[in-house]
UniProtKB/TrEMBL annotation:
Cross-referenced Pfam families: Formyl_trans_C, Formyl_trans_N
Domain of life of the source: Bacteria
CDD domains documented for this protein: FMT_core_Met-tRNA-FMT_N, Met_tRNA_FMT_C
InterPro entries from the UniProt entry: Formyl_trans_C (IPR005793), Formyl_transf_N (IPR002376), Formyl_transf_N_sf (IPR036477), Formyl_transferase-like_C_sf (IPR011034), Met-tRNA-FMT_C (IPR044135), Met-tRNA-FMT_N (IPR041711)
Enzyme class, spelled out: transferase
Protein name according to UniProt: methionyl-tRNA formyltransferase
Family: Belongs to the Fmt family.
GO molecular function, one term: methionyl-tRNA formyltransferase activity
Organism: Anaplasma phagocytophilum str. ApMUC09
């Protein structure tokens, strides 16, 4: 790389630590686009953790790369709100556009920008998330955020088949029994007094169905056991 004598090296979504020799291989060092408001959510899955943790805002950081994970000085940050129904695909698309614009702005004036050190007291870590099976003992709002954060991978098992849950909503309704159906819609009681309403699911990689169409192919009632919690599905006539 030294033979090319680059002015700056730009790194995006690399996922690994750069070899130390690359940090000094260019005149202005290495610049990274990171999809969070550093020092919050350093690591491999910052957008997923922002959604899962219920953050209302996130953003993009243009930063120097040093020998530590996402710990370099900051050239530029911009903030954006996280939509209440926004999933990881929607958010990543928005932040990629935002980050591209910010990167060009930084590169245009990088020699005159004085980068700012990160506040180490505000560091949080965003490790990769690899558990995709729904645990109904979690609170319903957490499950719904997990569905958005890990879209489209969250699932539960039904009669030996994996059913992916693509969209759901949580709310409180203390009078409901576990699995009660209201207005021909499936509401599942989870941890605490919250429930979640599953309304878009899939039994394959290629087909998405709304709940009513999904339920039409099931028996009148099913009883499933998840982690010592009985979840009863009772379906009215969906025709």
């Amino acid at each position: 790389m030294a033979e090319y004598a680059p002015d700056v090296i730009v790194v995006v979504s690399y996922g690994l630590m750069l070899p130390k020799w690359t940090l000094t291989a260019s005149r202005m060092g290495c610049v990274n686009i990171h999809p969070s408001l550093l020092p919050r959510w350093r690591g491999a899955a910052p957008m997923q953790h922002a959604i899962l943790s219920g953050d209302t805002v996130t953003g993009v950081t243009i930063m120097q790369i040093n020998e530590f994970m996402d710990a370099g000085d900051i050239y530029l940050q911009e903030v954006t709100e996280i939509g209440i129904k926004e999933n990881i695909l929607d958010l990543s698309r928005r932040l990629s556009v935002m980050g591209s614009r910010m990167l060009l702005k930084v590169l245009d004036s990088i020699e005159s920008i004085q980068p700012i050190k990160q506040d180490e007291s505000g560091v949080t870590i965003a490790n990769k998330l690899e558990e995709f099976r729904i645990d109904f003992e979690e609170a319903a709002d957490v499950i719904c955020r997990r569905i958005r954060a890990l879209y489209p991978k969250m699932y539960f098992m039904l009669d030996g088949s994996r059913v992916r849950v693509l969209e759901a909503e949580s709310y409180e309704f203390a009078e409901m029994n576990i699995g009660d159906v209201i207005n021909n819609e499936l509401h599942i009681r989870c941890g605490g007094i919250q429930h979640w309403f599953l309304w878009l699911c899939s039994k394959s990689q290629k087909s998405h169905v709304i709940l009513r169409a999904f339920c039409a192919g099931l028996e009148a009632s099913l009883c499933l056991l998840y982690h010592k919690l009985a979840i009863i599905f009772q379906f009215d006539n969906f025709s």
